[in-house]
Structure formats: C-alpha cells, structure tokens
Amino acid sequence: MRDAPWELRETHQASGRQIFARHNSFTHTGNNEGTMSKDIEVRDAEGTVLVSSWMEIDWEYFGQINARFEDDGETLVVSGSDGSSERIPIPD
Question: Which long-range contacts (CB under 8 A, 24 or more apart) does 41-49 make?
Fold first, then answer.
C-alpha cells in the first residue's frame, strides 16, 4: 500500500501547515483482528515536508489512526484506536 495516494487530513489556518496521511499496510491476522499502519507528513504552505512520521496499531473489530494539530499548530498529535498516542513537535 506504500503507493497509496496522500490524503489531506487537516489544514492549520493560522500557519498554512497541512497534515497528509496515506495507508501503509493493513493486515488481517485472525478472528476480527489485525494490524494497520499509516505514513503521516506535515507540510508547510509551499509543500516542504516539515515532519515525517509513521504509526502502526493492532486492532480488534475496528482500527483507526488519526492525525491532528494542537491548537497552536506547533505540535502534531498522532493517535490510534488502540490507545497509542504520540506528540511530535514541528520545527520552524
């Protein structure tokens, strides 16, 4: 799935930064369970990649990975439906 298209997930209005995500893998490993991963990038208004990240979760019945900005636009928050979460500072 690495060739999956990048999808715009969020735009921070004050800074013009954007979060893009794409599916990396999705595996069904048994009875209503599996793993999934996503690639995530934060880009500035000109399209320059400021942060590149990746998350993998284990899922049971349902799996989702979300990416969003903190209110100030200086931090990327990536969270999974399995309870995992990561805060990544965005460099200037």
Answer: 41/6, 42/17, 42/18, 42/76, 42/90, 43/17, 43/18, 44/15, 44/16, 44/17, 45/15, 45/16, 45/17, 45/18
CA 91 to chain centre: 17
Q: Report the residue count for the chain.
A: 92
Q: List the structure tokens of 62.
A: 């349902």
pTM attached to this predicted model: 0.88
* Tens of pLDDT, residues 54-92: 999 999 888 999 999 998 889 999 999 999 999 999 997
Distances (CA, A) of 73 to 25, 36, 47, 52, 83: 28, 26, 16, 16, 23
